[in-house]
C-alpha cells in the first residue's frame, strides 16, 4: 500500500483515493486518537456491520445508521427490545442483517457492563495501545487486537474478531497506520506524543 498525490499536492494513503468521501474520512478521522465512549462504541458497531462488506458501503450509510441506532448512545441501545429489532430489520437505509443487528444491541449491554467495571470504554481499549512500529507494514491483525477480541468474546461481545478489532484500533488512533509518506503520519505522531491517555 503506497500513497497518491491529491489535488492539493499532499501525499495520502492510496486506499483513500477511491472516493472524495474516503479522502475526507482519511483526512479528518482515520488514525486520530479518540477517547469518547460514544464514538468508540459507534466505530465498533460499524466495524461489526462491515464484516464481509466494504467500508465504503458502511461509510455511505453512516448517517442512516446513526439515525436508526439513536446516534449509538449506549444506554438507549442497551434497552432495545424485539420491537426495535424488527424496526431495524425493516430499515432499508442500513444493513438489514438480523444477526448483526442483535449483536450490536447485545454489545451495547456488554459495553454498559464494561464501563461499570473499567470506568469507560476508553480506559479499557487504550490499555492495549502497542508500541509504535519500527518499520511500516500492512497487517490485518496484531497481538493486541487478538487479545482484545479474546477478552471481549469472553465477556459476551459478538462480531468482534481480531480483524474487526484491528480496523477499530487503526481508525481510533490506537495505532498510526498512515503510510510513512502520507502527510498525516507525522502530524498524528505529534498529536499522540501530546495525547493524554485515559487513566
TrEMBL record:
Source species of the chain: Marinomonas mediterranea (strain ATCC 700492 / JCM 21426 / NBRC 103028 / MMB-1)
Binding annotation for Zn(2+): 13, 26, 178, 182
Keyword Transport attributed: no
Protein name: DNA-3-methyladenine glycosylase I
Matching SUPFAM superfamilies: DNA-glycosylase (SSF48150)
GO MF term list: DNA-3-methyladenine glycosylase activity; metal ion binding
E.C. number: 3.2.2.20
BP-aspect Gene Ontology terms: base-excision repair
Pfam families linked: Adenine_glyco (PF03352)
UniProt cross-references to Gene3D superfamilies, sorted A to Z: Hypothetical protein, domain 2 (1.10.340.30)
Keywords: Glycosidase, Hydrolase, Metal-binding, Zinc
Amino acid at each position: 500500500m503506497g500513497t497518491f498525490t491529491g489535488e492539493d499536492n499532499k501525499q495520502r494513503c492510496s486506499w483513500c483515493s477511491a472516493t472524495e468521501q474516503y479522502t475526507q474520512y482519511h483526512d479528518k478521522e482515520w488514525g486520530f486518537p479518540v477517547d469518547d465512549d460514544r464514538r468508540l462504541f459507534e466505530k465498533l458497531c460499524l466495524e461489526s456491520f462491515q464484516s464481509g462488506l466494504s467500508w465504503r458501503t458502511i461509510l455511505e450509510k453512516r448517517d442512516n445508521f446513526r439515525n436508526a441506532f439513536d446516534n449509538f448512545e449506549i444506554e438507549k441501545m442497551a434497552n432495545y427490545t424485539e420491537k426495535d429489532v424488527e424496526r431495524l430489520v425493516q430499515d432499508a437505509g442500513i444493513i438489514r442483517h438480523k444477526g448483526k443487528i442483535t449483536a450490536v444491541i447485545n454489545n451495547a449491554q456488554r459495553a454498559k457492563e464494561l464501563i461499570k467495571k473499567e470506568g469507560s470504554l476508553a480506559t479499557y481499549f487504550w490499555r492495549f495501545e502497542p508500541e509504535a512500529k519500527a518499520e511500516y507494514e500492512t497487517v490485518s491483525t496484531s497481538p493486541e487486537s487478538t487479545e482484545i477480541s479474546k477478552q471481549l468474546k469472553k465477556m459476551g461481545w459478538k462480531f468482534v474478531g481480531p480483524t474487526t478489532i484491528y480496523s477499530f484500533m487503526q481508525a481510533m488512533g490506537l495505532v498510526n497506520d498512515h503510510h510513512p509518506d502520507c502527510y498525516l503520519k507525522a502530524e498524528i505522531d505529534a498529536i499522540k506524543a501530546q495525547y493524554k491517555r485515559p487513566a
